[in-house]
Amino acid sequence: MKDALTMANINLFAVLQNLVELCKFDESSKELIQDQQITISFTIKNGPYARLIFDKGKCSFTCKHGKSNIKLYFKSPEHFNQMIEGKANPIPLKGFTHLKFLTNDFITLTERLSYYLRPNDELLKNPTYFKINTYLSAYAAFYALGEIGNTDPIGKMNAGRIPNGNIMIAVDQGPALYIEAGDGKLNVRKGIPKQYRASMTFKNLETANSILNGKIDSYSCIATGDLQMRGFIPMLDNMNKLLAQVPFYLS
Amino acid sequence: MEPYKYPKSKELFQRALKVLPSGVYGHLGPAESCFIPVDAYPVFSSKAKGAYFWDVDGNRFIDYMCAYGPNVLGYNDEDVDQAAKEQLKLSNCVTSPSSVMVDLAELMVDTVEMADWTFFAKNGGDTTSFALMIARAATGRKKVVLVKGGYHGVAPWTQKLGYPGITPEDVDNNLYVNWNDYEQFERIVKEHKGEIACFLATPYHHPIFEDNQLPEKGYWQKIRNLCTKEGIVLAIDDVRCGFRLDVKGSDHYFGFKADLMCFCKALGNGFNFSAICGIDDLKDAAASVMYTGSYWLSAVPFAAGIATINKLKTINGPEIMDKRGVALTTGLKDAAKANGFNLKISGHPSMWYMRITDDNSLMLHQEWVAECVRRGIFFTNHHNLFMNCAVSEEDIDYSLEVADEAFRILHSRHRM
Asked: pTM for this one?
């Protein structure tokens, strides 16, 4: 059973946060926010909080409280999840003069995000699409993994079994991120850490894309060396159990 | 030394991936095990003899994993193989079991100090699961106390909630204590008075990725006393250690008497059977549990088992393996030190665990092991290793030579 709070965290931190990358990689998205200076805050009762900042062609994301042009309120994690599924509307508390951005441009951006996160074989033949899909899928999957480890009841058990330290996850010539594990709490960050106790390296974008899109299984890739694991393997072993839960939430 | 290459192994593995989950599944496979990096290791063997196996590319390895334990006398031991062949001429899997089963049961009871009876199965996991069922049948209780990090097979109750395929009900009756922490066990027994059927543990703690720990002085004797007082069955998982430390059982080696002892790996020198031995008080309970399998009473492995156990007793196998283990591990530590590294050895010398302590990610250790494997010394990274009786002094000298070269490579990469 999907846990509503975990799902809300994933929707906010793994899915919506991906707008940051979308606006970096996708020219039409970048163009769409070229002249915008708008901050949207998402307040979810009994759930997470975050702000999306669009600033003249750049998009950023923060959990820190601050000023917003548009304040969206959700009665519960379930309400927020329904909004993401297109089955409910947010409650706007502020920013009525900016509603046009919300109903037009923001919707276009999220549709563009869905376009890149829901590939098919034909779309993946396009190298640009393929690259963007790989980056966005990787960020969505591993940020979702972090949320599952921090919130989902079974996920918390596996996160609690991850020894303290950094796990580096990288695609050769592609995205890199790392998971800070500390006493059962997980923080996912982009980039390569200065130090790490374990690493998982995808041989190339093709391998990463095939694994993330469920076309090949990760165990076969570990066995062939296309997915290389090094270091303190219990960290990866327990992390992989969280990764196995990701499709359940993101599908 | 020229490092090995594995083109045929890789080719065969590509075929395997198409028709077998993860190519080679389980602990002998590169995905589930401690083969890091995987390209340092062969995947398939072509033949084995004595202390060695050869891969499909023709590379020879001195094998310190011993098929994860079963190779105790040396691969294809002539006495064991001969006994198996002779039995095969007579019968193997038949409607009525062969009399050789009784011969082996008598030998087990005469050999294992605590044993009043024995029962045969196929895997170590069969026996640990059966031990729990016997304890539950005998006591009418449902809970079991296990040591954190202990390995007792792959049945659902041995795994953890959150692992694929495991439900809360599978592990609901498990209670966990830390190794060597008698007081914690005492507290749990008090908290669950009258509910605990069994305390199941290995004779010494040999988890993967951790230094192995021998029992502290008096630990087992205190556990034994409390189990007796509280009516808890004391079951020992001697699947890995059994017949390597002591043919009389590892409980005997550590100076206590278990109620149930689970054996497997070293019993048949690779011929597959396992055994659980028990005390008279538990014989009826064992008989009452419905427990069997299609090949559990096959005669050929039993004949091999008799030959293996008799030979281990005749040559004093545990002493040979202990002596060779001490020689190898002492040499490995010295080779590490000579090259500026610290190799920590823990556990029993015939079944030791080793770890380069110079980094907490164990990446240095993985590099060193990989260089050893590429030069014909088969270790895995983070599992205890196994000695066998066929390893010669020359094999140990050669192993140390390779280990030294591997440390020198490590030094040139990291300590320039």
From this structure: 0.93
Task: Considering only the beta carbons, identify the residue of A225, A232, A234 that sits closest to B38.
Answer: A225
CA angle B53, B56, B57 (to 5 degrees): 105
Please give the biggest Cα pair distance in chain A: 56
ipTM of the complex: 0.89
B interface residues, A as partner, C-beta within 8 Å:
13-14, 17, 21-24, 29-32, 34, 36-39, 160-164, 209, 360-363, 366, 382
Residue B119 φ then ψ, to 5°: -140, 135
- In whole angstroms, what separates CA B98 from the centre of its chain? 28
Residue B49's beta-bridge partner residues? B52
Instruction: Give start and end residues of each alpha helix (H) in B351-392.
Output: 363-373
Beta bridge partners of A186: A181
Q: Identify the bridge partners of residue B237 per DSSP, sorted by sequence position.
A: B262
Half-sphere exposure at residue B168, Cβ-oriented, CA atoms within 13 angstroms? 3
How does pLDDT run along chain B (416 residues), one tens digit per residue? 899 999 999 999 999 999 999 899 888 888 877 899 999 999 999 999 999 999 999 999 999 999 999 999 999 999 999 999 999 999 999 999 999 999 999 999 999 999 999 999 999 999 999 999 999 999 999 999 999 999 999 999 999 999 999 999 999 999 999 999 999 999 999 999 999 999 999 999 999 999 999 999 999 999 999 999 999 999 999 999 999 999 999 999 999 999 999 999 999 999 999 999 999 999 999 999 999 999 999 999 999 999 999 999 999 999 999 999 999 999 999 999 999 999 999 999 999 999 999 999 999 999 999 999 999 999 999 999 999 999 999 999 999 999 999 999 999 999 75
User: Which uninterrupted H or E stretch holds B348?
Assistant: strand B343-348
C-alpha to C-alpha distances, A190 to A139, A187, A200, B86, nearest whole angstrom: 8, 10, 14, 65
Q: Using CB atoms within 10 A of its CB, is residue B192 exposed (0-12), middle (13-18) or buried (19+)?
A: middle
DSSP A10: I
Quote the Cα angle for A95-A100-A104, to 5°: 130
Task: Write the DSSP symbol of residue B161.
Answer: B
């530590």: which residue's tokens? B333
Let me know: does B204 contact B215? Beta carbons within 8 Å.
yes
Q: Do A223 and B38 touch (CB under 8 A)?
A: yes
Q: What does the DSSP 8-state code read for residue B3? A: P
